[in-house]
Amino acid sequence: MAPRSDSQTLATGSAMSDTSVESSIDPIFHILRIIPFSFLRPPRLRLKLPSFTLPSPMTVFALILLTYFLVVSGFVYDVIVEPPGIGSTQDPITGSIRPVVFMSGRVNGQYIIEGLSSGFMFVLGGIGIIMLDLALDKNRAKSVKASYATAGISSIVIAYVMSMLFIRIKIPGYLH
Amino acid sequence: MGGKQPEPANVSSKSESMATNKASPDLLNSLSFKSLKLKTKQQELLIRVSILGLVYVLAFIARLFSVLRYESMIHEFDPYFNYRTTLFLTEKGFYEFWNWFDSESWYPLGRIIGGTLYPGLMVTAALIYWTLRFLRFFVHIREVCVLTAPFFASNTTVVAYFFGKEIWDTGAGLVAAALIAICPGYISRSVAGSYDNEAVAIFALLLTFYLFVKAVNTGSLAWALGSAFGYFYMVSAWGGYVFIINLVPLYVLVLLITGRYSMRLYVAYNCMYILGMLLAMQIRFVGFQHVQSGEHMGAMGVFLLMQVFYFLDWVKYQLNDTKLFQTFLRITVTSAILVGGIALGVGTASGYISPWTGRFYSLLDPTYAKDHIPIIASVSEHQPTAWSSFMFDYHILLFLFPAGLYFCFKRLSDATIFIVMYGLTSLYFAGVMVRLILVATPAVCLISAIAVSATVKNLTSLLRTKQKVPQTGSMKGAGSSKASSKVLLDQSQPFQKNGAIALLLGVFYLLSRYAIHCTWVTSEAYSSPSIVLAARGAHGNRIIFDDYREAYYWLRQNTPTDAKVMSWWDYGYQITAMGNRTVIVDNNTWNNTHIATVGRAMSSYEDEAYDIMRSLDVNYVLVVFGGVTGYSSDDINKFLWMVRIGGGVFPVIKEPDYLVNGEFRVDKGASPKMLNCLMYKLCYYRFGELVTEYGKPSGYDRARGVEIGNKDIKLEHLEEAYTTSNWIVRIYRVKPPTNRL
């Protein structure tokens, strides 16, 4: 880190470099001043160190929401156990192969597509509640608030109903 | 609203009492109307305390299903070991317990129990037991052990309330306490009878986190000291303390990166790390791991980083010169990172700092255990989590969690950053291993409580704006736009109010569905003792299979006291605790070669197995067989794991020998090695004569759904000693070698 910025100070201007030479306590800078830059002349470059700015909280939140979606869909289960995307069963009478979306009978088993769709429902429910909060924010136009509210409520209702439907298909004895 | 109403009543009652009795005794005055009416603050306190009290009781009684249905007994496998050690502790005292060498397990190696267990749970139960005895309640230690978990679950709800209050406000605290009281993710490991480390550990975890966040918020040394002691309790209770010692430094690092370094953070982390580390080294099982193990190095690194930060802050204050300081900053940071890196490299290369153990490394790289360590991969709790497990254990909270995260991000503070980090890291680990859903539960409940509390607050504030608007409308009409906006609000008031009421009813409906779900899940899925099986008979009546305890008591009463029992490691703890006999391997699984020897014996032909059994001095062999009852967690279904683990150490055991076309079969088409190995013979001895199901041939295995291949089994070196009434547990005696003629 120290040498790069020192070369920058040397490149930016000799006037400034005089004052920095006098007041610098950096030993590496002084060593570099003698070897090799006493006989080498560094070229004039327009370099800028990349500055590190922290992202805004809402950007981080968007990334986190994506990670949450992956984890809750059982992504780690998919990577390790490698289930098929969708299951299949053979119709006993006709002999044709019918697809089975939900791996039934076990609580801790899934196919990839059922995991992703359930994870999507959960995130949809969460976003619905967020939109409801945005709708109650005072600084917006009324029409925007109303549309946020309806979108939020419908998201929550759809997400809840679909999740209940999914779990009922998956576990036949649910709530009995 | 509450404060306004009583006042007119007070005034009238006061005038009444003054008019009627001027020379009245003090008793009448104290009984007057006025003293019974509480101020708003007191009303609020009463509501809060009563809610917390109800939640406390609810958390306890929700976990009592199995005690009511079966009896007050210890469940599963691991709790039996904890029960046996607690019994030893109460009988012999702490010093004997701390220095205990047990020769009754892992014959002939023995086990240093004092140095290889986490004593927190046992000491806690023993303290409760001694307290009750001091108060002259002479309860049996088993009752104390069974009810320890629900008791600590209730305490966790109280801690959750305080934590929620610290992060957000009292409303969120109350909701968090209520959510965590019935959350199935927590109930699954803390039901009455589940006397396992997690029962106490989750309480200790939440307590440590709460005290640490309180210390960071206040900067007080006393709270930091409290969090160090909380950490000590956690280290003594569970191996999952590694989560704390990595999450807290990660949190400190995030605070440093986001520019929230402060003196409070410095005091809190330093005190907790140093004192916590010193206290943790008092536990023999942990020992010097805090300075030697790779998993604990993160904490040390952050500790040194904090010192660098403090040093730089001090230098900056002294120098008063920005340019000089900039150069000094660059030098110091570079050299600090260099020195730290070199120290870490030297430590790891020389072997002083041990690398991450397999258990924790498989959390970072989930595919590791499957390829390298079959024992870890075989435990069903260590499998990754599917979406339905999440739904089962969390229900509504899965919707509320992202919403709660959003609210936390809207109002970022030191405390909310902590809960967000705790929630995200624990949820990731819960995705990797089903068992860790338990660790994520407090975070999920807290964040969901924030969402519920914030949403309900928004909605009720909508309901309450009705009172304020007419006042401001009537006071001044300054500006036509203002008046018109007020008029618009007036028009939409009833609609908003109705909408808010409808939404509140919706929230109430969702929470009530959550409560119904939690109660159903607790009752159906998580209240089974595992040692007693139950099934529905043909007429809907309940049939109880108590075969395990029957077999263990037979062992206890009908075998010589120095008999040694060989079984698969699942049953070791139960055999030692209830059967009181020496076992070869048990659930501690600390010696893979010993387990592999047993696995090899189970998968070899009878003659080779007899040699192994003679070398281990085995007198009895115990197997679990589910063919008659249809019980699917029996030894034949676990057999492939025995082969894999045995084959991992002894290459003479090869898994493909037992499979036919990659398929595991026990019927006529099974491989010859499978049909003649010891496990097969012991499970199916005399089974060929038994008719198990109407309409099926004899020897029909109900668990696998096939007719067995080898019905005519003859045992040469073993003889049948006992088979339980439903054929679930079968015990065989190893015959001594025949005399030479």
TrEMBL record, chain A:
Question: What are the UniProt keywords, alphabetically?
Answer: Membrane, Transmembrane, Transmembrane helix
The entry's localization annotation reads: Membrane
Q: What is its main location?
A: membrane
InterPro entries from the xrefs?
A: OligosaccharylTrfase_OST3/OST6, OSTC
A matching Pfam family: OST3_OST6
Which sequence ranges are marked TM in the entry? 54-77, 111-136, 148-169
Recorded GO CC terms: oligosaccharyltransferase complex
Q: Which domain of life is it from?
A: Eukaryota
Topology with respect to the bilayer: Multi-pass membrane protein
The UniProt similarity line reads: Belongs to the OSTC family.
Q: What is this protein called?
A: Oligosaccharyltransferase complex subunit
TrEMBL record, chain B:
Q: List the transmembrane segments.
A: 45-65, 112-132, 144-164, 170-187, 199-225, 231-254, 266-285, 297-315, 327-353, 390-408, 415-431
InterPro entries, A to Z: Oligo_trans_STT3, STT3-PglB_core, STT3_N
| Entry EC no(s) | 2.4.99.18
Q: Which reaction does it catalyse?
A: a di-trans,poly-cis-dolichyl diphosphooligosaccharide + L-asparaginyl-[protein] = N(4)-(oligosaccharide-(1->4)-N-acetyl-beta-D-glucosaminyl-(1->4)-N-acetyl-beta-D-glucosaminyl)-L-asparaginyl-[protein] + a di-trans,poly-cis-dolichyl diphosphate + H(+)
Location of the protein in the cell: Endoplasmic reticulum membrane
Keyword list, A-Z: Endoplasmic reticulum, Glycoprotein, Glycosyltransferase, Magnesium, Manganese, Membrane, Metal-binding, Transferase, Transmembrane, Transmembrane helix
The record's listing under Pfam families reads: STT3, STT3-PglB_core
Q: In what residue span(s) does the Oligosaccharyl transferase STT3 N-terminal domain sit?
A: 51-447
Q: What class of enzyme is it?
A: transferase
Cofactor(s) listed: Mg(2+); Mn(2+)
GO-annotated molecular function: dolichyl-diphosphooligosaccharide-protein glycotransferase activity; metal ion binding
Key word Membrane present: yes
Question: What metabolic or biological pathway is this protein involved in?
Answer: Protein modification; protein glycosylation
- List the biased-composition ranges (Polar residues): 10-21
Q: Where does the STT3/PglB/AglB core domain start and stop, copy by copy? A: 564-622
Membrane topology annotation: Multi-pass membrane protein
Tell me how this protein assembles: Component of the oligosaccharyltransferase (OST) complex.
Sequence similarity:
Belongs to the STT3 family.
Q: Which PANTHER family match?
A: DOLICHYL-DIPHOSPHOOLIGOSACCHARIDE--PROTEIN GLYCOSYLTRANSFERASE SUBUNIT, DOLICHYL-DIPHOSPHOOLIGOSACCHARIDE--PROTEIN GLYCOSYLTRANSFERASE SUBUNIT STT3B
Put simply, this protein is called: dolichyl-diphosphooligosaccharide--protein glycotransferase
